[in-house]
Amino acid sequence: MELQELALSLAFSVGACAGGAWWCLRRLAEARHLLDTPTSKIRSAAQGYVELYGVLQPLPETPILGPLTGKACLWWRFKIEEYSSNGKGRSWRQVESGSSEAWLRLADATGDCLIDPQGAQVSPATREVWKGNLRHPRGPTQSGIFGWLASDKDYRYTEERLHLGEPLYAIGDFRTSGGGRQGLDPSAAQSSVIREWKGDFAGLLQRFDSDRNGQLDEREWNRVRLAAQLEAEDRHRQMSVQPAQNHLARPREAQPFILSSHGEDDLARRFYWQAAAAAVLCLLGALATAWLLGITVV
């Protein structure tokens, strides 16, 4: 085996070993997070990392339609692939993809929660795949004899959706605003207001530069701090009297953020199977690396 081929083979085998080990450990950790986090009711959920289970409800916004099928939904993800040649043969190549950024509303018997799906692993129950000759399909999927006749088409379309009334499993970072639930950190709140005011420094000077010299001296800065403190307290009072609003979003720490139409046990089982497949890949990569290194020694 030539040196260049050996180096390339070693790179692939080491990469397979390292990548398989990383994916195996990640999937095992995610499965443990799912199984170790108890399911909470929305009304009594603690602030922080929680697991929720409920039903998807509508939001008072413009109706959402799947971009490829035009079917009504609450969330979508699509992929368009082209059957093309890569020099060694023909295969499917992804040419376009996207996902919805619309927020979701999850409800259980005790309350509801708004979910920001940005950064989430979303596993919908609805997944449609079909083929056609146009880059962008005109209309919904075709099934039966029409779908069979489309087997030689140049494009393959995939669309996944979440629908109104479907059950949803969600695990992520839970926060509640309003309803008197948030305590006031005077120093942090004051600093936040001052930073906001500094964004319009000309307006800040107009309000607090009493001698009109274009600068704020120590006495004037004391007035700024006092006014910012009063403003922060007023904002906190206004927020406290508003109805409590629950939000679920991506955790700041390296914890899984998952939205799924499937239950916790199904997800954990899937993660364990993926971890097992990754472990096999890691083992094969390690054996291949050992064999290639044996060749170099010989």
List keywords for this structure.
298 residues; alpha+beta; 2 domains; 5-stranded mixed beta barrel; 4-stranded antiparallel beta sheet; 40% helix; 27% strand
Kindly report the average pLDDT value: 84
- The helix fraction, in percent, is 25-40%
The structure class reads alpha+beta
Q: How much is the radius of gyration in Å?
A: 27 Å
Number of helices: 6
Largest sheet: 5 strands, mixed, barrel
Shape: extended
Distance between the termini: 12 Å
Ranges with pLDDT <50 over ≥5 residues? none
What is the H/E string? HEEEEEEEEEHEEHHHEEH
Number of strands: 13
Q: Describe the strand arrangement of the main beta sheet, using strand numbers.
A: 1-6-7-12-11
What portion of residues belong to β-strands?
25-35%
Number of domains: 2
Describe this structure in words.
The protein is α+β, with helices and mostly antiparallel strands. The protein folds into two domains: 3-178 and 244-292, no CATH class; 186-241. The chain has six helices and 13 strands. The strands form three sheets. Strands 1-6-7-12-11 form a five-stranded mixed beta barrel. The radius of gyration is 27 Å and the shape is extended. It starts with a helix and ends with a helix.
Task: Please summarize what this structure is.
The protein is α+β, with helices and mostly antiparallel strands and 298 residues long. The protein folds into 2 domains: 225 residues, no CATH class; 56 residues. The protein is built from 6 helices and 13 strands.
